Amino acid sequence: MSVKFCLALLALSSLTAAADPDCEELIKPLEDRSKLPGKWIYTAGTSDNKELLEELKMVNSSWIELSPIPDSTDMTLRWGDKLNEKCVHGSTNSTSTENSTSVTFHFNSTTHVHVGKHLQTCPDCILWTDNFVSEDKNTATTRKGRNLYLFTKTGALDASHLEEFKKQAACLNFQAEFHFGEATDLCPDAADAKEEEQ
């Protein structure tokens, strides 16, 4: 009887942890989307897909710029990623509904579809979590997983905000394995780079 009682207590405690009131506060969706437009520097991220996490670790630095599309809830996403000391630029549109945002990226033969949402986080930060599906037409392979990315205005993050991010990751059931981007040595804006070449 005592063993069954202990097992029941363990089950109850795990349910209590999953419904932790602190987690309810930490993973609230962002309601004020007016904070999103602007340029943001990738600061920290993780994925529950090991292959994608290894690819993320190859990113030296990254920035994104979100711009609202007039008369729409959708946004244009531009980015500059430094991968193995080479700059990769791109642009795509995100489509938003009341509960989620969808972004599709095309790289060579692979299509990456990310459906997620922004969460409340530290000031001058944006936090994005998503479910993704990647399909490679050449190899007929599919990858799936979940991601969590934190961006900041300056690339710097206070220790207290880093701890909050780690707690948010734990609440979302991510392992404590993070990749941190560099705030310096960012790729130039593609438009600025073209102007310099002329």
Automatic annotation (TrEMBL):
SUPFAM superfamilies found in the cross-reference section: Lipocalins
User: Does this entry carry the keyword Nucleotide-binding?
Assistant: no
- Per its UniProt entry, which superkingdom is the organism in? Eukaryota
Q: Where in the cell is it found?
A: Secreted
Q: InterPro entries per the record?
A: Calycin (IPR012674)
**What does UniProt give as GO cellular component?**
extracellular region
Q: Per its record, how is this protein called by name? A: Uncharacterized LOC115581582
Q: Does the keyword Secreted apply?
A: yes
Where does the record locate the signal sequence feature?
Answer: 1-18
Q: Which CDD domains match?
A: lipocalin_ApoM_AGP (cd19415)
Known PANTHER family for this protein? ALPHA-1-ACID GLYCOPROTEIN, ALPHA-1-ACID GLYCOPROTEIN 1
- Which keywords has UniProt assigned to this entry? Glycoprotein, Secreted, Signal
Q: Which organism is it from?
A: Sparus aurata (Gilthead sea bream)
